[in-house]
Amino acid sequence: MTRRDGLFGLLSILILSSFMPMGPIGPLTGAVLLSIYCVYLLILIKKQRKYYTSHLIEGGDAGWKTIVTAVLSFAGLVVFCRVLVYSAVEIAVVLHIPEMIVGLFALAIGTSLAELVVAVNSARKHMCSLSLGTVLGSNIFNILIGIGIPSLFVKIPVEPLSVVLDAPILIVVTVIVMYFMWTDMELRRVEGVVLLIIYIIYAALRIAITR
């Protein structure tokens, strides 16, 4: 599963990156991104239908309790993330922090907290496929749907620095993650540290250039 998701994630990034040098992302690019997500979704449903059919959770108090807990937890995370995001935006406005920096870090971190919580809990329970699948699936959704749908209604401007720095780094990091996954079929602690260091270096570089 993670190999398929990883390849689709890389494909999504490459396609988006190929459109970025052309200028603002408009309806045509949005339609392409949405079409790719539809293909991904159809493949996902087809591959998982048999699995979920044979692993259906039988009805009962335990099943309903799990569902209710999951819904309430998700709702709490959504509220927390929204508060964090809006607070970060207000602080950025007051401190005159560039919008791109806010989007790359404050908003990105705030909107990714839900996936981070799920990934950490899954990893602690040794459910590695769920942990990686959550992160990869979220990235695919954010690129294909998060950019695809808005671009159908309004053109999304592309910052030149995003073309020459952000997109290439995203591609390189995705390839590194896929390499880590495919060598041992898991992400080890040292590999996680490597990814964290890369992010810190990227953040420092991006902030320094923006200033």
From TrEMBL:
It is a multi-pass membrane protein. The keyword Hydrolase does not apply. One of its GO terms (biological process) is intracellular calcium ion homeostasis. One of its GO terms (cellular component) is plasma membrane. It is found in: Membrane. Residues 67-207 form the Sodium/calcium exchanger membrane region domain. The keyword Transmembrane applies. Pfam families: Na_Ca_ex. It comes from the Archaea. InterPro entries: K/Na/Ca-exchanger, NaCa_Exmemb, NCX_ion-bd_dom_sf. Keywords: Membrane, Transmembrane, Transmembrane helix. One of its GO terms (molecular function) is calcium, potassium:sodium antiporter activity. The chain crosses the membrane at residues 28-45, 66-89, 101-120, 132-154, 160-180, 192-209. NCBIfam families: calcium/sodium antiporter. This is Predicted cation antiporter. It comes from Methanothermobacter marburgensis (strain ATCC BAA-927 / DSM 2133 / JCM 14651 / NBRC 100331 / OCM 82 / Marburg).
